[in-house]
Amino acid sequence: MADLTAAPLTTADIRAQYSEMTRRKRLYGGIILVVFVALMMAGFRTADGRNAGSFYDGITHVFDYPSEVLSEASEKAAELPGHLVNFFPALIETLNIAAASTLVGVVFGTLLSLLSTRGMAPWPRLIPLFRRIMDISRAIPEIVIALVLIFLLGGGPVPAMIAIAIHTAGALGKLFSEVNENASLKPVEGLESVGGSWGQRMWLGVIPQVGPNYVSYALLRFEINIRASAILGFVGAGGIGYELKNAMSWGQGRYDEAAAIFLLLFITIVVVDQISSGMRDRLINGAKA
Amino acid sequence: MTILEAELTPATLKQDMERLFLKKKLMGFALPALVLAYMTYVFFAFDMPGLWQRVSWQNAQTLVSDTYSYKTHVTRDNRDASVSVAIEGERKGSYPEGQSPDWVTLAAGAEGETVIDLENGHLVRFGSDSIEYDIPGYGLVRATPTRAKGVQAELPAGDVPEWISVSKNRLAITTDAGRLTVTRNRAEVFRYFTGWELFFFTLDSPYHGMGIGEVLTRAATGEAGAIFHDFWNNKMWRHQDVAWAIAETLLMAFLGTIGAGIFALPLAFIAARNFSPFGPLRFVVRRFFDFLRGVDSLIWTVVLARAFGPGPLTGALAILVTDTGTFGKIFSEALENVDEKQIEGVSSTGAKPAQRYRFGVIPQITPVLLSQLLYFLESNTRSATIIGAITGGGIGLLLTQAIITQKDWEEVAYYIVLIILMVMMMDWLSGWLRRRLIKGEGGKTKRRARADGKAFLLP
Predict the structure, then answer these.
(1) Does B459 reach chain A within 8 Å, measured CB to CB?
(2) Residue ranges in chain B modelled with pLDDT below 50
(3) Nearest C-alpha of chain A: how many angstroms from B28?
(4) A67-288 belongs to which CATH class?
(5) Contact A47/B56, CB-based, under 8 Å?
(6) What is B239-454's CATH number?
């Protein structure tokens, strides 16, 4: 209340100050907006200039390929079920790659996250090391490892699986360690007081607390990994992506196969998306209740 | 209470507990067993046992040794006895006519002898009609290639060791010091060096082989432009192209992510229950989002590449289309969680609808919006690399090209390091911006933004 002794501000002063502030804020906002729009435009023009076909030529042809594929597929609609059955094993392979790499990634991600969470790590000095390992394995795009491994192991599902698993371990490790930080350390201390080893403390003290969150993240990751394994197939790692590349390289006359693969991939992604989001909802809400 | 107690006798309680425990125990064993069974199935479905035989150790060795070393080829054309020296055997790395590194003494005339010193006493001589390799501890190997009789090799007496392979038309010797191959048409010596060859300047640049101090002095005395020009246009490592490729990849991620945000925001208003009273329209927009997300980015990439051709624009559009679906879903859910009181407050001052949105809604969803945009910006940098490899643009294209040649592994290693640095930098930048921009909104909104963001984030 002592401040009342200072020169009292009149309403006009306050208004002037306020409108001055608003003006300045608007000016800054406007400048940022203009710079941003200019950046977008410049970026677009650069990208357009460096592209093989220009945007304005291409935009009229966006639907050419889909309509070609669709018309051919509808002409040969009778063969579609046969194609779907044909490519089903490839789809299973893609799903297997995604599932196996998610499982492997969860195991290594859990280990890395436990090793890099303060209070749980057995070697606190090495926490930065494990953090860097996670950062690096998260930063490597799957395709890099996959291409190198394809050179070493030949084409097939294994390079894709290893590549996705490495990335998954890094990505999940980071999310898991955020979950771990919110877990209570009391069970761990209790287990330590009765002489539990590090493995027992983690398995019995931490995992039950964080389990639902882990599973929910792993399911999300599984969704992402299906897409990733389809893409890696395209560069030679087997599965539905590989079949798609083959079907496309046959060119016209075989678009019905491409259509069947598009359909399979679309259905799979939508179905897995639905199931996993339902399960995640239940896991998170169940954990809260 | 009496009824409850009557039902829950200790015996039934114990029974219930035991059943529960049994169930838990079974779950505890069944789940790992299931995972194990699945992994076993995958192990055989992926043909892991057969993989061991398919592994190409030869390739692995080339790959690993090539990433940290390079070789210089000294080649003698057996038809006219001319000798050329080239790094990695590439034209762009070849020494100009009559020049050679100091361990190669070129023949003085047509009848002279080229001496290649592989160090530690290993000496290779390209004579006028025969090739000699003096191997310490073994002896002198002489090979005479002729068009009629193939390669005639004279080895010291005794068994041929396994590091020498001799046949009618070919002699190959691999030692620690280097490698010699003689065929009818040519004789070739490889000498291995550690490091990345010609990383800064190629052989035709006057700055090749200069120390860093001298280059700096020269740069200070006005040659900076020329030095940079020689480095920037290095034909071996193509620094200019690489820088452009990285810029293209970042551009794809930036345009795609921001563009998706711009398209998704208005659509999200139509898809949000509390802002769009018209049910069927809401349904249509939502299914549209699901469709965009469901058609994988792979398919979008393939379809768009047909229309726009390879390049960064195609990649940006593929990211844009896929992420419009994802952002639409996230934003519309954020909009449905908006606090109505704030909007009421703004409208109580007589605000028009546009002002209500601007001052009542947008400030509430900005944290979610920004944090998601920044998360995706980082994740899309990685996607842009992958999409670039498929459509042909950016660093992804350079990487696939380098891998397809199957010999430029030092370039592959270089690109991989650049990609990792690029993604980590974007990760750091997006985290920094997220903290800077969202902290300003106050602690409460920050927490909500994180909680909202968590459920969808694609790390």
Answers:
(1) yes
(2) 1, 441-459
(3) 11
(4) mainly alpha
(5) no
(6) 1.10.3720.10
